[in-house]
Amino acid sequence: MKIAFAAAPDKAAEDALAQLKKRYGGASVKDADLIVALGGDGFMLKTLHATIGKNIPIYGMNLGTTGFLMNAYRQENLTERLEKARETVLHPLKMKARTRDGNFSEALALNEVSLFRQSPQTAQFRIFVDGQARMDSLSSDGVLVATPAGSTAYNLSAQGPIVPIGARLLALTPISAFRPRRWRGALLPSSSHVRIQTVNPEKRPVSAVADHAETKDVGEVDIHEETSLSALLLFDDSHSLEERIISEQFRP
Predict the structure, then answer these.
(1) Full-model pTM
(2) Which CATH fold topology does 93-225 show?
């Protein structure tokens, strides 16, 4: 098994990198069968973005804070853990944003695509699903579309639902909704095409963020799942991503 190691730019991860390479060797990414990523969820997300569509699995070991996308860090028996690990396939969201001046930008998101107000005033949105207007006016700090893998991240903090990995659903969730007050969002088929238009963007400017890629002053954003692309995650057999997402729903 050819293993490539990658580490977040901090001392704990870099020290672990040196120790693991000494113990197990280290292949280049282009020659490796898989990548072991050392760090936290942010570094894992960065590593997954770098390998989307390349068909190389990523096994994370947690040296960060939460480590929801990671496995426990242990140097011992790494090869055996990798051989027994279970694979989870993630399809990213594709965001196509049109700015107020008519320019376009595209980006991928494994967690969520979020739209945020850029001014002290609430933002206003119109929401279309598969070409049909579903909400003529949403006044809020923002709105997001999350994948199942991302449903336990910012989506959960915004009071959105946790979505099991195999559910083939997307979460559409408002961020601090002002009107309509009681709207808590929607669950959509993963095949849905979502279009979000900003209302009066000159007065109420909005930015769109696909994971870490931001486009400012957007007028309209199209979002859909890009099934032609995938990222591959590996988890210890005893604690799969599916199990983590189910367990998250029963936390006190």
Answers:
(1) 0.91
(2) Tumour Suppressor Smad4 (2.60.200)
